[in-house]
Design goal:
By secondary structure, the chain is mainly α. It has 16 helices and no strands.
Length: 388
């Protein structure tokens, strides 16, 4: 997916020269988030392993269609928009099923480690996908790069059959999908900590995650005059930082105060975004993006740890579905960032994203001050206050 995102974003940027078009293409990948509450109910009703297998087969089918268009020399901009939008419909279902399966496979005492490993696997794929996608597109062209993407999708589909965890279908008791979705909303509404965590999902997706998605190409090109392979290196460095942050956060087996760590990491994350805006040297920009990634990796693990630890297994699909709905901030941020970069310049875009994020953090603290003092249960049942 990371290789595909980089390859298609550069294809659009090279063909149109428009950062706004890049942002719109990135937003199209997340069209399925509007169905996330339904996906959450599906994940709570059916075997999650089977869902994952179906979604990965769906991704492979779309990749084959893309490859055929590329090899025939028929791929056009509108094809990219249509196929990416169709792929986005199934993308979020796969994310919800995968995250729920990860939580199903461990007990709460190992949840922070599991979330660290989950995030680390995503960041490793982003590092390799960014480097390989950029180098392959620059050296061997779009066709061969997309053949490689298709083979990797095929491998992912095959590996889904190796997942041994099977979730039992949830007790339905005559419940409709609508009543299940309403139950998920009611559960979140009754727990202010979950509402605060979901707001942080929207916040980070809106202000900072667009940069490591398609807008990273715009930053690389406009700030430092880089080509696609150089943009891939910059993206890989940010992802390597996120990998380091995820490993760091996951190494604390009994992280009992994820809310406090989340708030601090997110503040630093946005301050670094502001520091990138003055167009520092290329080397300093890479160093800043590495630190930027570390904060993102830590924040992601703390967010997922808080959400999953505060949610019983029978409701995890629905709460993760609402998390998917909060990811709506990412397409909004991509479109806003693309428009700002095209209209006012990439430096202004970075300043706006950083300042908006800091303002939203302040708002979140006023609305949900309890997040700062959030405590999880220790593995032996004691509260965090019993520990040093």
């Amino acid at each position: 997916m990371e290789m595909e995102a980089l390859v298609l974003a550069w294809f659009v940027l090279a063909d149109t020269g428009s950062p706004l078009q890049v942002g719109l293409l990135g937003a199209a990948r997340f069209g399925g988030i509007f169905l996330s509450p339904v996906y959450g109910a599906i994940v709570d009703r059916f075997d999650r392993r089977s869902i994952l297998i179906i979604v990965r087969g769906y991704n492979l089918l779309l990749a084959i269609v893309f490859t055929i268009l590329v090899l025939l020399g028929s791929l056009q901009i509108w094809h990219a928009y249509v196929l990416v939008s169709i792929g986005g419909v199934g993308r979020m279902l796969g994310v919800v099923a995968n995250d729920a399966l990860t939580a199903d496979s461990v007990d709460q005492s190992s949840l922070s480690s599991a979330m660290g490993l989950l995030r680390a696997s995503l960041d490793i794929s982003r590092v390799l996908g960014s480097l390989l996608g950029g180098v392959m597109l620059a050296s061997i062209g779009l066709g061969t790069a997309y053949i490689t993407v298709t083979f990797l999708y095929a491998a992912a589909a095959a590996l889904a059959f190796a997942v041994s965890i099977r979730s039992l279908p949830g007790a339905r008791d005559g419940e409709t999908y609508l009543s299940q979705i309403a139950g998920g909303f009611a559960y979140v509404r009754g727990k202010s900590i979950l509402a605060a965590l979901l707001f942080y999902v929207f916040l980070t997706e809106f202000t900072v995650f667009p940069l490591v998605n398609d807008l990273m190409l715009v930053v690389a090109r406009d700030l430092h005059g880089l080509d696609v392979d150089g943009a891939g290196v910059m993206r890989a460095v940010a992802s390597a930082g996120a990998l380091a942050g995820a490993i760091l956060a996951g190494s604390f087996r009994n992280t009992l105060r994820p809310g406090r760590t989340l708030i601090v990491a997110t503040i630093i994350w946005h301050l670094i975004t502001l520091a990138i805006a003055p167009s520092p040297s290329y080397g300093l920009t890479l160093a800043l993006f590495f630190a930027w990634g570390v904060c993102g990796g830590v924040a992601f693990v703390m967010l997922m740890l808080g959400l999953l630890a505060e949610t019983p297994g029978a409701l995890r699909g629905r709460v993760l579905g609402l998390r998917g709905l909060a990811i709506f901030g990412l397409p909004l941020g991509l479109v806003l960032g693309g428009w700002l970069a095209e209209t006012f310049g990439v430096e202004f875009m970075l300043i706006v994203h950083g300042a908006l994020g800091l303002g939203m953090i302040a708002l979140a603290y006023l609305l949900w001050p309890a997040l700062w003092s959030m405590r999880l249960q220790a593995t032996d049942g004691r509260s965090a206050g019993d520990d040093a």
